[in-house]
Design a protein that fits this description.
The chain is of the alpha/beta class and 431 residues long. The protein folds into two domains: 2-142 and 423-429, no CATH class; 150-411, no CATH class. 16% of the residues lie in helices and 38% in strands. It has one helix and 33 strands. The strands form four sheets. The chain has a six-stranded antiparallel beta sheet. Strands 7-10-12-9-31-30 form a six-stranded parallel beta barrel. A hairpin with a 5-residue loop joins β4 and β5. The chain is elongated. The protein starts with a helix and ends with a strand.
Length: 431
């Protein structure tokens, strides 16, 4: 009687264990399947995120291609219709069978209306047929040129490319977009750059950059910043071995214009929306005469350009002046009086490629920029400059010259210089 009962209990126990094992296996299978699905979904999401990043990288490649074509003015491979240029870059291959391409368009590519915009679409095609696209756009602009307070760019000999203060002097910075210099606290953004820099006893609030990372300085020479420790004259964190100043061709204007009048005269008009061009050969403004610039004006001088004795050029608050000269430069007397006090409104471009003598000694402060890479510039009689200077060599011969670099020049484009097109920023376009 007991044996069947024992057998029955044993069979029931084995059946319960089997059922529990089957339930456990089912739960384990579900858990494992869910885990595999989570892993698969995670892999897909990771892969998609990676390719999504690649699509923005492709869009950035499109911006670079657009810049290359704009700066080279090379439109081979582009289709041009009206004022819009388009092209596609293809042939990009990635892992897991993914491919990519870039669709680029430039509206107002010739900049005829001043609304030039680059659009770049980075497209990635996944092997499952999914397409990922990210789009960016930017409004390119010409690169700023006067990023240094003083830059000597001569490279033809060991004595070229020198900035030299023979005695004392001061170099600092301000921002003309915020008002005149006396209304501001001088800043520390001025850069003095050259193959070699001699400060003697000059004081630079900013930076010095030379090829060797060293400079020549007297006992009172200083290079300091806002956080320079007290008692430190040459702050090593403000001296570098990487001077940088681009040298670009000068685009001397051509076209219809008038002969530059002699004697006391007024040129330009406040109602002008584009500069009037005046032509002259070797030009002297002297004998007490005054040339008043009362609107946007360009002077194209074939030969030297001199302002002497008590004579001057007066740029009114309505005016702006760009002078293109191919000979020597001599500014004495009252020089150029810039009533706007905005350095970007007066520019002197020396287009000669040979070493000329540029003597600069106006009685009044000079508000403007000078670009003369072919000649050496000597600034005399404690000249005061608000703006920036680029020349083959730059020498200050006075005992207390002053250069107040205008940082707003870093946001200023001068049509007379053939600077490249650049991207200052870009943003992603969302549909």
């Amino acid at each position: 009687m007991n044996r069947p009962s024992l057998w029955w209990r044993s069979a029931r126990q084995r059946g319960s264990a089997l059922l529990a094992a089957l339930c456990f296996a089912a739960v384990l299978s579900l858990a494992l399947g869910s885990y595999i699905m989570v892993c698969y979904q995670s892999l897909q999401m990771s892969s998609r995120a990676m390719h999504y990043t690649r699509s923005i990288e492709l869009a950035e490649i499109g911006l670079e291609q657009a810049l290359w074509s704009l700066n080279k003015n090379d439109w081979s491979g582009w289709s041009v219709a009206s004022d819009t240029a388009r092209t596609t870059l293809s042939g990009f291959s990635f892992e897991n069978g993914a491919t990519g391409e870039v669709d680029i368009s430039i509206t107002d590519f010739d900049n005829s209306s001043g609304t030039r915009t680059i659009y770049s679409d980075g497209v990635v095609h996944l092997s499952d047929g999914t397409t990922l696209t990210r789009s960016v756009s930017t409004k390119p602009k010409s690169a700023a040129f006067f990023t240094n307070a003083l830059a000597a760019v001569g490279t033809s000999s060991a004595t070229d490319g020198v900035v030299k203060f023979n005695s004392g002097g001061t170099v600092d910075s301000y921002d003309s977009s915020r008002g005149d210099y006396p209304t501001q606290t001088p800043g520390f953004s001025a850069v003095v750059a050259g193959n070699a820099v001699t400060l003697t006893n000059a004081q630079v609030k900013g930076y010095v950059a030379t090829n060797t990372g060293t400079l020549t300085s007297g006992s009172s020479g200083m290079v300091t910043g806002p956080n320079t420790a007290s008692g430190v004259k040459i702050d090593p964190s403000r001296v570098s071995s990487a001077p940088y100043q681009c040298v670009f061709d000068i685009a001397t204007p051509t076209g219809a214009g008038s002969l530059l009048p002699s004697g006391t005269a007024t040129v330009g008009s406040p109602s002008d929306t584009t500069p009037r061009i005046y032509y002259g050969t070797n030009t002297r403004i002297y004998n007490g005469t005054t040339l008043t610039v009362d609107g946007p004006v360009i002077l194209v001088v074939s030969g030297y350009f001199n302002i002497e004795d008590t004579s001057s050029i007066i740029v009114t608050t309505n005016g702006s002046l760009a002078v293109y000269f191919s000979g020597d430069l001599l500014l004495t007397g009252n020089g150029i009086r810039n009533d706007t006090k905005l350095p970007k409104r007066v520019a002197l471009f020396g287009s000669s490629t040979v070493d000329l003598n540029f003597d600069f000694a106006p009685a009044l402060p000079f508000y403007g920029v000078i670009y003369a890479p072919g000649g050496s510039l000597t600034l005399k009689n404690n000249t005061v400059v608000y703006g920036a200077v680029v020349a083959k060599n730059i020498t200050f011969s006075g005992t207390a010259p002053a250069v107040h670099y205008d940082v707003d020049l870093r946001n200023t484009v001068f049509p007379g210089l053939q600077t490249p097109t650049m991207i200052s920023d870009w943003h992603e376009v969302t549909n």
